[in-house]
Amino acid sequence: MAWIYLTVAGLFEIGWAIGLKYSDGFSKPVASLLTVAAMAMSIWLLSIAMKTIPVGTAYAVWTGIGAIGVAILGMILFGESREILRVACLFLIIAGIIGLKLVS
Predict the structure, then answer these.
(1) Most buried residue, 3, 6, 66, 77, by CB count within 10 Å?
(2) How far apart are the first and last CA of the chain?
(3) Which DSSP letter does residue 39 get?
(4) Residue 101: what pLDDT?
(5) How far is CA 89 from the centre of its chain?
(6) What is the chain's Cα-based Rg?
(7) Rounded to the nearest 5°, which phi and psi values hold at 76?
(8) Which domain holds residue 93?
(9) What is the total count of domains within the chain?
(10) Left, alpha or beta for 83 (phi > 0: left; psi -120 to 50: alpha)?
(11) Residue 3: is it exposed, middle or buried by C-beta count within 10 angstroms (0-12/13-18/19+)?
(12) CA dist 36 to 26, 56, 84, Å?
């Protein structure tokens, strides 16, 4: 269950990071409220996952999921760069997450 909590925490991290963009510096109330709620949920689920997953592994996976998700959504939603080297680096993050899962 801890890995499920960690995965969902990572998804909420993606949500709050993208939410920061939409909140426009916390000037838009609805987007700001949703962003803060996603932050709280992400941290809470991460803390539950850390009860059984080592802290270094949990944090690295959590930030990795967030980084990959936000980078992909940045490309889709905001027209950010899709350079091959950037995409290759995302695959390196994925490889790292898989490696951490295999050794934990």
Answers:
(1) 6
(2) 14
(3) H
(4) 87
(5) 16
(6) 14
(7) -75, -50
(8) 2-103
(9) 1
(10) beta
(11) middle
(12) 10, 24, 33
Residue 13 C-alpha from the chain's centroid: 4
* DSSP secondary structure of 54-92: -HHHHHHHHHHHHHHHHHHHHHHHH-----HHHHHHHHH
Report residue 44 as tokens: 């809470």
Task: Enter the tokens of residue 20.
Answer: 């920061």
Cα separation, 81 vs 25, whole angstroms: 23
- The C-alpha atoms of residue 67 and residue 103 are separated, in whole angstroms, by 21
pTM of the model: 0.91
pLDDT along the chain (104 residues), means of 10: 97 98 97 98 98 96 96 97 96 93 87
Task: Count the residues in the chain.
Answer: 104
